[in-house]
Every structure is written in structure tokens, then in C-alpha cells.
Fold each of these.
Amino acid sequence: MAIRLSGMTSGLDTDSIVKAMVSSYTTRKEKYQKAQTKLEWTQDAWKSLNTKVYSLYSNISNLRFSTAYNLKKTSVSDTTKATVKAGSGAPSGTQSLKIKQMAKAGYMTGAEIKADSEKTTLAQLGYTGGDAKIEVKMGDETKSITLSTSSTMNDVVKELKNAGLDANYDSSYKRFYISSKKTGVANDFTITGSNIDGASALYSLGIAYGGEKTTAGTYTSNPYDEYAALHGASDDETKAKIKEAVTSYNNLTTDAAKMNAQSKNLMNAVNYGYSYATLQGIYKNLDAGDGDKLKLLENLGSSRDGAVISKNGDSYDTYTKTTLTDTAGHTLYKYIDSDNNSHYIAAVADTDKDTTSYYDVTESTREAYTDADGKELEAAPTVVDDATLQVGDKIYKKDATDGKYYLQKDGTADKTDSITISKKTEYTIAADAANKTGIESASAAYDTIIKSMDEKTQSAYKEALASVQAFEGAKDEVVGSNDEYSVASLTKAIQNAYAGKDKDGGTIAVSGKEAVEKLLAGNGNEADGFVNKANALEEYAEANIKKAADSNIVKELASKQKDSAEYTQALNDLLDRVNTAYTLQNKALFNSQVKKVAGQDSEIELNGVKYTGDSNSYSINGLTIEALAETGDSAISIKTSTDTQGVYDKVKDFLTEYNNIINEMTKLYNADSAGSYEPLTDDEKDQMSDKEIEKWETKIKDSLLRRDSTLGSVMTAMQTAMMSSVEIGGRKYSLSSFGISTLGFLNAAENEQNAYHIDGDEDDSNTSGKTDKLMAAINEDPDTVMQFMQQLSTNLYSAIGDKMKSTDLSSAFTIYNDKQMKTEYTNYTKTIKEWETKISDREDYYYNKFTQMESAMTKLNSTQSSISSYFS
């Protein structure tokens, strides 16, 4: 930058002169700055509108599905006993509910002790022992606590809380209050000493619980009894008892798993039995031979597309496509007969007639000679002896190591040139082979049979086939295949019954569907019915699981690999615990005043079916039930119905959001022109008040999207989607069918002519006096309203989605050309900088000229002064 001297000698206002001289450059720069500012405001306007359109797009996504409208409402006959909420899947109607038992948390109220404050120590309570080892057990989880003589009541509370309990010491009543954080049996707790000092500390704290004291001086719930029961006369005897308990535990859990698997198989077999009978009935009703044909085609499954079926007398053979070819390059199809022999046919395409013929092929084996590159030699070499081959004048010798024949050069094998002999199977169509007739595409044959069924039969067939294939394809992981209730055994029993046979293959009086139904029902003995057997097995399994839970103390040991280091360590740990428990069983003191309420599971009956849980909340078949109080043997009723008001509000909320956006778009599109208004420069702003500036800029901003073609395109797409008709049950519906329409240009408020109004909407002064057709339609035929709204939402969703697709000019989920605008903004920034450089260069140029002038004038004045001095 040149040195800028401003009229020091000449007295001229150089800055003003230079500014005027570069004003044309400045004007050009300001033009681009204003254009960039206007573009920035346009980007902001589009961003704001795009956010709202995307919000609408996201919200209507869910409205495309029936779950959005399957709204239900419930009422309970006694709200003091339960509250119930209905989800979309809840069935309409009245249901019966009994609350037999409420879930409770385990709760302990300690005995009164002599701790005057939370800072009282165990020593002050009279405890004189060493480290007090205490265990807190909740369900399968056990946590250890260590206390000492210096531990305060606050320390005890803190340790109990860290172990997962709620605990408090009330110095007013001098007691501990302890409870589990969650309800249910699984969340109940016990607090025991794991050494004598621990048991003694619990007694000093007033929380040593052993149940109620009997007249004999013992306690009904001595917490050490369970472990002590495994104690023997010696450690070896104790270990033997522990191992016996592990065996019992494993047997119980194994049997429970087996019974549960059997129960599951029996329940699934019921559905299988009915489906199997249905499927056989459909086979029988097909045209002659089509039943057997369909069974074969079903077995092909997904390979049907690459298979053909051929009639063979009264039966059919299916050939699956292979990767093999015959000697002429034709694709081979393979059929495996009942003796597991493979048969092939070749598919020969007739390109002139655009047909394919099939021929039987003969299979032969020959010796093939292959070179080092794996290519077969054009002619077989001459066999000189067992170890020598000759090709022309070349001699190849067999290598005993790899069996290849290597070229011999001067008595040495050339490992780069070799011949391999192998057996090659070839398939050839005999010269006189006849074209096999009656062959057709397996998939086409399958489709033909399916299409021959009426719609109802097709539906029943597909459902039954899926059930049959699912059961027959199931794998037993717990139950052996020879078990009476294995998948294989149950499948055979049902198929035998249908064929008129008993489980041993003997003939029975009935067959077909009737025989299957009798088998499933127990053949006259209700207890033998599959469902009752399944329920009985499930109950036995549950009983075994409960028995196993009673011996949970060996659960961890049972999970270890026998004779492993982990097993030995766990066994020794349990041995120590048993010995300690045996000692504490008789020596531990218990506080007779301590009270303990056991954790309890809840139990309800819904429509006569019992449910249990560790909380008072249940989610059953679309209903969310919160039990509040027991009902005993009395039942309360739950009434569920379609929430018509909810559906109405869903439609209304959708229209409200749509109206807000379309009204804003209409206002932006129809905005008044800003005329010659342009963004202000800093100099122009200095001459105006803040209010004037705001008014000026608002005028421009309001007009930015006026008559914008992109905005018009989006509006048109949305309006077209909203005006579309939907066909339901052969009848066409539109929004007007449900009393929803616009007010029209003459009646609507300014820029609201595209908004929709619901007739009879009490919140809409324009239409509140009209008949409410929407609510009437929801009450009379909610399914039609829901189907219409689903399709309308889908149409609008697709219309907006199409406008938000990514292009070269716009990003995904954007309705305007944001990429293009970003590029334009960057270009403006670059152009403005170029003009700023030009202005700076011109200013430097002019200032340099004025500087030279000032220097010349200074010299002239100096010369004149010198001359004048000679005449003075």
C-alpha cells in the first residue's frame, strides 16, 4: 500500500477526491454485497420453511400405518383396584380381572437398640469383636460387608445402601428400617453373618433375624439352617453331601428343561395336527395326481426355480439343475431315485423355436491327461510302462511322491512340465436318444396348481403349509428324537392317525381329520389331550424349578466343569460356608423383636387365566394393567373400545399442521413485491433510525420467495396429494367425503384458501355450525376412515419425499436448491474480495499521484523561498 499523504502542501481534501474517483468501483462491490445479503436472507427463509416441511414429513410417516389410528380407550369398574391403559392391539369388549395378590417388597423393622444418634459406634453398643463379616443376599446376588467396632450407624446405613438395599436408622425410635428397592420374591433379601463376629454385630445392631421364636427357644427361619443342613461329621462327609446336592440340583434342572421342551412340542403339535389335516384335505380335493405332484414341488422349496418335473407313469420325478454339462455343453438336471441312484437329463435349447428339449444321458468314466496348467491334452500320450509316458519325442517319468509325470531332460525331471492322470466322468446324449415328453418347469407347475385353488383355499393352503413345514423342520435340542414327545415322534403319531393307524402302526377305527382331532383331544381321555399334557408337563417343570431354587446354594458349584480348578475352588468355598453356617446355626443370637415381611410376587387373573410377576404392572394382549389393591374372589370389569375422539384428534392434528405450513407457503408465494428495495449499505444505515432499518429490511425479507417456482412446485405437489381420491372396497373417497374441505377463494381469509376445515369442528368458527361428518364416519365405520387416512398420508408423504430427494443442486431431505445457493454465496464472497482488491489498487494509484504532486509542490515552494531570500 502506498504512503497516503492528504493535502499537506496543496491543502486539497485528497481522501474525498480519491473516494469520488473510485466510486464506480465501490458501487460495483456494493452491488455484489447487496446480492449476497439478499441471498443469505433467502437461504434463511428456505431453512426455516424446510424445517417445518421436514417436520410434517416425519410426522406423517407414522400416519401411513394402521397402528397410528388403532387407538383404544378403557374404563375400569373399580379404579381403586386397578388402572388400565389400552394399546393399539387391545381387543374391544369387556374383560374380567381379579387381583389375587399384590407384589410386595421385602421389609425389615429392626429391634430397638441403644444408639442415641447416627454417630453411635458398634463399640458403644457393646460389640467387642474383630472384623464383622456380613452378607446381603438378594435373589442370586450376594454382596459382602465388613464392619468394625468403630463403625457408626451412618456407616452401617451406607454399607447396606451400597449393597443394594434401602436403609435408614431412626434415632427417635432407635431402630433400623431396611427394605429391598424392588417388589417380588426374586428381589427379597436376607442379611446374615458370614463369621461369628458378623452374626454378633447383627445382633448388636438389632437386625439379626431368625424368624419367630418358638416355645422351645429356637427360631422358625434360622438363616443358617440351609447351609448347615449340608454339614457332615467330617469335611469329606460334608463334601459328599454337597456333591449329592449338586447332583440333585442338576437332575431337577435337566428334567425341568426336558419337560418344558416336551410341553412346547405338544403345544406346537396341536397347531401342526390341524394344519396337517387341512393340507391333506386340500391335496385330496385337487385334480387327479395334482396332490402328489404338489407335495413333490413343495419339497423343492427355493430350488423350484431351477428345477423341472417329469411324469413317470402314475408318479412324478423332479430334476434339479446342476452345474454339470454334457460333452456338448448342455446343462444337466439330476434326479435321485429311492435307491439313492442319480439320473441325469440334458437340456438342449432349440434357438429357432425358442424351446428346450430334454434327453437322457449316459454316464461314462475315462482317464484324462492334464498338463501343468490344468488343461487336458488334445490326444492321450503313449503308455510306455507303468511309470513312463511318451508324447511325440518327449519322455515323462512318474514321480512316486505326487504321482505326476515330469518331462525328462538329461536324466533330470523338469518340474515346470508335467502330466497328471485322473479319472473323468462324462455325460453324453446317445445318438438315438428320444426327447423326453411331459417335462415342465417346476415353478410354473407349482403356480398352475396354486392358481387352480380359489382364494379361500389358497389362503388356507399357505397358512397350513407354513405351519407344517415349521414343525417338521424344527430341531429338538433337549428332547431326544426317540422321546415320546419329540418332534419326530409327534409328527409320526399325527401322520399315523390321519392314515388310520395307531402309534405302533396298527389299524384304528377312524382316519383323516377326525382321527387327528381325537388324538389331539386324548381319544376320549381328557388328561391325554395334547394341551392338557403340555400344561401338566409345564407344571411339573415349574415344580422342579422351584425345588432346584430351594437348593440354589449349590447353583454356582453346579455351573462349574467338574474336576476343574474353578470347581475345586468353588467346592472349598462352599465347604467353608457350610462349616461356618453350622457353627452359627446354634451359636448365633437373634433379635426376637425384629420383624421381617417377605418379598411377594403379584398374582392376577385375566379372563380366568393366572399371571404372576414381581411387580404390580402387567402388559397383556395390548392392555397395560397397574394393580392397586386385591379384589379377592370378586372380579372387576375392563371395557375396551375404539377411541373415536382419539382418532378424530389424530386427523385434526394432522390437518392443523398441514394448514399451518400450507398457509405460510401461500403467504410467502403471494407476498407483495419489494420493488426497488435492496439491502442497505453501512453508509445508508447511518442515515436511518433502527426502526426505519428494520422496516426496510422486513419489506425485502417478506418478498424473497414471492412467485418462487420451487415453492410453487412444492405447494402444487402437496395440494395434489391432499385432493387425491382413495378407493376402498370398490368405492372412491376424498377428504370431502368426511366433511373436510377448503373454504374457497371467496370465503377464506387472505392466504388461507388452501387450508382444510372440518365440518362441525367446535374450535373452527368457519365450520362449527355444520354437521360433523368426520366423527359420524369414525363412529359408524372407523376402518374406512383409517384406511383412507393411511393412503392419504402415504400420498402426501411420497409427494413431499419426491421433492426432498437429493440432486446436483440440493441435498437429501431438502425442498430447495441449497447446494446451488451455497455455491452462489461462495462465488459472491470471491467476487467481493476481487473488487475490494481493485478498489485498494486504484486508491493506491491515485494516492501515489497526489503524493508525487505534494512532493513537487513542496520542492517548488522551497525553491521560491530560496530565490526570495536573495531579494530580501
Amino acid sequence: MNKYICIHGHFYQPPRENPWLNEVELQESAHPFHDWNERITAECYARNSASRIQNGKGQIVDIMNNYARMSFNFGPTLLEWMEKKAPDIYQSILDADKESQKRFSGHGSAIGQVYNHMIMPLANARDQHTQVVWGIYDFRKRFGRDPEGMWLGETAANTDTLEVLAEHGIKFTILSPYQAKRYRKIDEKEWHNATGAKIDPKRPYRCTLPSGRTIALFFYDAPVSQAIAFEGLLESGEKFAHRLTTTFDEHSKDPQLMHIATDGETYGHHHRFGEMALSYALHHIEQEELAKITIYGEYLELYPPKYEAEIIENTSWSCMHGVERWRSDCGCHTGGHDDWNQAWRAPVREGFDWVRDQLEPLYEQEMRQLGADPWQTRNNYIQVIMDRDEEHVREFIHSQTNRELSKGEQIKFLKLLEMQYHAMLMYTSCGWFFDEVTGIETMQDILYATRALQLAKDLSGEDYETKFVEFLRRAKSNNKEYGDASKAYYKIVQPTQLDLLRVGAHYAVSSLFADSPEELPLYSYKATSEYYEMLEAGRQRLAIGKAFIRSTITWEEVDVSFGVLHIGDHQLFGGVRKFVSPDAFATLHHELSSAFDKGNITEVIMLLDKHFESHNYSFWHLFRDDQKKILDQVLEQTMRSLEHDFQQVYDNNYPLMAAIKNVDMNLPRPLQITVDYIVTSRLLEALMAERVDVDTVLKLLKEVDRMGVKLDEEAVNYAATIHVEEAMYYLEENPDDTEHMLYLTELLTVINGSSLQPEYWQSQNIAFKMRQTTYEINRKKQDEKNEKADAWCKQFEELYKSLNLKI
């Protein structure tokens, strides 16, 4: 067969971590999920690890891991997040690469990516090399092999970029056909014009570089890739397969590679059920032998390039003006605001370049004084980024320096490298891709730049902020609320900055709401309580203590003393300062506790001002996730009181409300809100029980129909989803519990007969695995006339069917 198909998915999210905490904080815009990484993982990355193939009746007949049958790259910073927050999905991606090696002649589906999606042609040579070195090391550490290919951020390329890839052993990269300049058959003299995508994407091309090195280029099929992303091609798996298989030249006897490249998020996030269209297409093409599914590494080994090509310098796949989208108001934007402009891109780029150029001499000079090779050490720092175990970091410091460093020098060494790390992250491409400078993507990059400058100030004592803000002032916002990026800087970025005292303040405030205040997780910091006392009087609480705060990233540390007063709800007053002396702490403790014991809250507040002066903190200085946690605790009592009031209104007026509904009249709005709230609450309570009373759920669902209840569908569906999942996990561990299986089947029957639409994805995965294991064992016994096995199989088949699965 001379027809081959390769589907490439570029799976990527920008790094979203708070630069001071090394954690992704709550993002309200991703509701009901914690953040956008979590949401897109649920909608896309997880789905592709266990994608459904359905029959004509919509029943699931098979589940497959799409990653094992396609070419893909994952952003290293995204995989770092997934390893911590979605380990099962992360492992399924690694497993898929191993499975694909068996399928594709020893070649793996995964390829590498430049580390944090920097636009490589706009980077200096040092940063280009570091991006590739970090990308390769990260890939090798995760997948256990070297990457054959590497994805360039936005496929942005020039000759220098290709030289860097080739120098580091990368065999190929994937580009848009619009990036091709000219081509010819190898050893022929005449070149053919390829501009305007006039190049055959069905073959690989060799690119010979000025150094004499070579790299293979694959120019993807643009029309089909475009149709997938923007023209609804994923609405039907059969339609998708047909489009892929009808692009071949039927008269050619030469091998042909039909290959496409899109954002991986297309399959499930941008297009719901897109992952199912993908799995159906791959399955259908293989079943019908319409073409051979392959990946780039395998195809390159089978059919080395017979043609060579050159690229147009400084081009990408998402900017028709080359790479201007990441440095000027070129006209490329995401749309929806015709009166907006992106003139802000230039000053933001200039500001970041200024940051980079200011920090380089500082970094180089200080690192040489510590006895290290500055730029080789930065390239090697990926070893620490991926493993921050303290002993490992000590070994790294020792390996990179030519002498033993003192404790203070070790802190300086780590600060210098963190400064460079964040100076790399600030160039993440998403900062320029979208329409508005105050959007979360650009502000995230500004956060990274700010962290780099803060570290530079710690190291040099110089003020970099004033000059940096001047660049931001030139970056005019389309949002009248801000006017320019400097105002967003003061409103969003500056309050986010942390030092060790503010970390101590967070520890002190959050300790009031913790079960074990002596041991609190503090993200990338560690707080060790050396003294802690809490005094209580009714709703009022006063915590006084001493703690040791240490950064697990830079190892800087401080002893702090603190006092924090909670007078109810979210009203908090507190102070933190460096520990002065035992006598000073004894005075602080005596004065605060005496005033509190007297019930003189005004005096306590005045004493906090006296002892801590400008280092005063409140609820608003807490980290975002902890603000929500405390607000939820404060609201809990309020909500219980409200629910009691709603319940009384519901009970006292139910006969009247039922009568109104019986004559097809609308309930007055206050009464309808009451009914909606109470029925939703009862249904949630029923579904969150350890074992659901199926009859109660059935009655409540009938009440929904009878009273025209507008349920909080998101909350109820989520509760049903979680209960069914937990029940399935139990069944997986206890497959012989047929009573539990019957209970679950009955509950599913009730839910499936209602308007509820819970998500059965994970439950289906568990059932599918049981189908391949426990069910098969019992089915063989069933063939041997084993009555117990026969009964088990029949019961399991009912459950399987209830989950929309077909045996």
C-alpha cells in the first residue's frame, strides 16, 4: 500500500502558575473547574486517552487511546502540571507512546516541543538553544527516549531556528505549506517556486542548512487542517475519514503521506466529541484498509526525502505577516472587537527584550563569581526544574561550580537561575496572540517578567520596576477600565508579588481556619511553627506565634513573629515582622493577650499597628484559593440559616403552590425560587449520600416535572456523576457484590429516565475494563454451565447497557 495517513495534534496550554507560588491559582473564568488546565484536561486530554467508538444506535462498542495512533506533542509545562494534578491522564499519555512504538516500527507517537512555546525567530541565540535543550531533556525524562521531531511554537521558523534543532539532533519538524519558499528534486539544479503553498504536502523534504547539517520538513495539508479546525469536519467521523482518504492521487505509484496538523484541543475542547470523530476515523480507515496509519518518524525511515526545500524566513502558521503577530499591530487577532487594535504588542515585546538584556550581564557576572559557566549552567537548570528535591539540588550546585558555596552563595546561585527561568517564561507566545494587553495571557507573561525583576533587585539592589513600567505605560489597553498596561500592572501584578514576610502573613491568617495550624502547606514555601497560641472569646480569635519560613525554590529563609485577630466573617487584622529577640516577642505576646483577655478589641488592633507598623495584613493578602476556602467556611453558616428559612416557606405554602400548578398557573417568582432551591437541595442531599435511596430520588425527579422546577443542573449532574463513579470504583474492587451491581443499575435506570445528564465517562472506562477482565473470566465459566457466573454476567450486561455500552 502506498497511501499513508498521519494526524498530528499539538496539545498545549501556556504555563499558568503564579510565579511566586509555583501553583496555578483559582481561575473563575474556568468555572465549574478550578482553572483552565483542569477544564481542558477534562474536556480534551482525558477524552483522547479513552475515546469512544459508537455504533449506529449511539452505543459505545469500543474505547481506544487516540494518542497511541496519532502523532502528538505536549507542551512540557503542561505535562509538568498534569504529572502533579492529573497523574492518571499523564500516565496514559506516556503509555500511549510506548504502545505506539510497537505499532509504528519502533517509532513513538510523541515528539518534543520547544520548552515554553517561545517564538523562536524573535529569540536571541542563547534563548533558542535553551528552549531546545530544555525541551529535549524534559521529553527524555518523561518518555524515556530522545525525541525524533520537535514542534516549534506557532511553527514559527527561520534558518537559525532550524540550525538549532539540527545541532541538537532533531530529525524533523512540522510546518505550514505557506512557509515553503522553493523546492526541487535532490541533485537537480532547477528550483520551483513554492510560495502561496504551492508545494506537495504528501512527501517529506530535506532542508540543507548553511552549517551543512540537514533537517527533514513536513508541510501539512492546509485545506484539510483548516476544515478540521474551522469548518465542522469533526461533526462526523465518517465524513472526517472520507476527507482524509480522498486527497490521494489515485494515479500515482509513489508513496504518499496525507498528514494534517491542528491544535490538539480541537479534539474535545474546541469541538465537543471531536475526539470521537478522530477515533472513529482512525478505526474506520484501518478496518477498511483505506490507507495505513503512520507517524512521521516511521514514514521518514521508510521513505527518506527525495526532494529538498527552503523556507521563507520568519514565518508561522497563524500569522499571514510572518511573525508580526508577536511584536506589532499586524492585523491578526482573534476577532469580535472591530474597534480594537493591538499596537500594545510592540511596547510589550520591547519591554521584555529590555528585561532580558538588563538581566544578562548581571546573571553572567554573578554566576562567574560563583565559579559556574553561566550559560551551560542555565541549560542544565532544567534538571532542577524537573526535580526540586533538596539533596538533588545540592548535588546540582556542586556539579556546576568549581568550589564549595556558602549558604548565602547557594541562595544567590538559585536566585540567579530562577531569574533566568522566569525571563524565559515571560516570552511564552500566548502573551501576544490575543487581542487585549490586560487579558490573562499577557498579564501572565508580565507576572513572569516581574518575578525576574524582583529577583534581580534582590541580587543587585537596583530598581528595575520604574523603567519597566514605562514600557507598560506605552502599551495602550482597549479596555477603558485600565487605559494602559501599567494600570493593570499596579492593580493585578503588584499585589500578587510576594516576599517571605507576606508568606508569613498568609501562614498566620490561614492558621486561624486550619485544623492543624502547626503544619500548613504553603505551595513552594515551608512554614515551621516554633511557637503557636490561639486565644478565643466567642466568635473572636487571636493567634500569636513565631515561625520559620523557607522557600523550597531559592532556599531563602526568615524567622517571623506574628499576631492576627479574627473578629468574625472575613474581618481580619494582622501583622508580621522579622523575629527581633525573645524579649521583644515576650512583650508582644503579653500586650496582645492581655488586651484580648480584657475584651478590648480596639486596643488589640492598636497594638497590632504599634508592633508591626507598615507590615499589616488582612483577608485580602491571602492567596486566592485560600480566600475562597475561608469565604466558603464563613458562608456555610449563612447558607444553613437561609436554607432553614426556605424550608419553612416551602412547607407552609406547599398545598397552595401545588394547587396553583394543578391549574397550570405560574407560581409567583419568590415561591418558584423557593421550590427550585428546596427540591435542588434535597436532590443534592440524596445523591451525596453514601448509598442513594433510589425511591427518594425518583420521587424528587417526579416533583421536578410536577412543579416545573428549574434545577441547578450543573450541581445535580456533578453530584450524580461523582456518586456513580464512586459506586463503579467500589464495584471494580468488589466485583462479586451483585447486590451493589443491582442497586447501581436501578439508580442508573432512574437517572437515565429523567432530564438529568450526568457524565459517565469515567464510569464507562471502569466498566469497559471490567468487561475485558472480570466479565471475560465469568463468561468462560458461563460456557461451562456455572449458574453463579451466568447470573453475574447477565447482571453485569444490564449495568453495562445502562452506561450506554454495548457488549
